[in-house]
Specification:
heterodimer; A: 115 residues; mainly beta; 6-stranded mixed beta sheet; 11 strands; elongated; B: 4-stranded antiparallel beta sheet
Chain lengths: 115, 114
Amino acid sequence: KNQVEQSPQSLIILEGKNCTLQCNYTVSPFSNLRWYKQDTGRGPVSLTIMTFSENTKSNGRYTATLDADTKQSSLHITASQLSDSASYICVVTYFRQGGSEKLVFGKGTKLTVNP
Amino acid sequence: DSGVTQTPKHLITATGQRVTLRCSPRSGDLSVYWYQQSLDQGLQFLIQYYNGEERAKGNILERFSAQQFPDLHSELNLSSLELGDSALYFCASSVGRTGVYEQYFGPGTRLTVT
């Protein structure tokens, strides 16, 4: 079954600290993996998108890694800020028979950054 | 501001009713995606349209339908509403047909079914 599992479910850190969020997937055949940031009650905002051949991608203080062999991805946040408090969602796209694609969403990691 | 607009922002209706949610994609984007996010649940992909044609289908109920018009705006129709349909409904748009293109999400429509 095509699944995306994220850990931890929730995380509380102090402002200025670094943290790493995990995403494991069983989706196949893989097309791409994205990380989104979603503030409460608002639409997700894309942070990174990686295809099979990419193993790291940065967007400011956010760095995503991808290991397509072990089907794992991580999102590392450096020098966290209060505005980083949000849910972070991992989304994996795979190809279906007939060539169409399907997106599988993780349930997200809720990050709280405290002063 | 992503450039994707959704109306209405909030909608309260009764069980058994039918509603229509509207989405205008970013200028130049040909794909529109619809998602449902229930309380404490992850995002669920419902359906994608590309340049007026249905391209991909996710976990969309038979009571739900969508279409994309020639001006590229899209509507999601929800009928015979049940309490469990209460959720945030997001639309997203992207320039291309496949999932490799970045998706830009709208602010969402919060549907409450009473």
